[in-house]
Amino acid sequence: MTTKTGLEFKVGDAVVYPAHGVGKVAAVETQEVAGMSLEVYVVTFDHEKMTLRVPTKKAKTAGLRSLAADDVVTKALTTLKGRARIKRTMWSRRAQEYEAKINSGDLISIAEVVRDLHRADSQPEQSYSERQLYESALDRMAREVAAANRIDKTAAVELLAKSLSAKKAVAPAAPEADAEAEAEAA
């Protein structure tokens, strides 16, 4: 995907930045920073009304990437159909893990959060913080699926809802997995 200018992304490309989701490369500029010339990608995020400047040489290490490939989107949708894995740890720790997965920018990890926090109509109500994390993950995933499939966000949300409605019942994490998680945290 490298262009003849040596840059990985070109103006108009849809990209994913881990902490903000899907954006568009609006320009490639050269800026003067501390007396040095620095080439940056200017990435706009319309949904957040935000513009981000990422140095072209640091784009990879900053986590800037292309949209997920079709096979990754398919795997993420399959993940939604899977059985929710809820660890038996305190909510604050699980919430931190979910937040880290959402901000990782990895579509499969975000799909795991959506799957784990999704509640069917027949299930108990979510707490405020659970609902906030769920909606954040769902929004981030829907935006990337929409951009990757060239559909609008509403259609992407419907596609995700279809996959979620096909999911299996909640399964608690295996006790040995809990023990491993506790050991890692210590």
TrEMBL record:
Protein's recorded name: CarD family transcriptional regulator
- Positions with biased composition (Low complexity): 167-176
Instruction: Give start-end positions of Acidic residues composition bias.
Output: 177-186
User: Which range is the signal sequence, renumbered to this chain?
Assistant: none
Record the organism. Answer: Brevundimonas vitisensis
The record's annotation in Pfam families points to: CarD_C (PF21095), CarD_TRCF_RID (PF02559)
Q: What is the lineage of its organism?
A: Bacteria, Pseudomonadati, Pseudomonadota, Alphaproteobacteria, Caulobacterales
Under SMART domains, the record lists: CarD_TRCF
**Domain named CarD-like/TRCF RNAP-interacting: which ranges?**
8-118
Q: Which residues cross the membrane?
A: none
- The superkingdom listed in its UniProt entry is Bacteria
State the residue spans of region: Disordered: 167-186
The record's listing under Gene3D superfamilies reads:
2.40.10.170, CarD-like, C-terminal domain (1.20.58.1290)
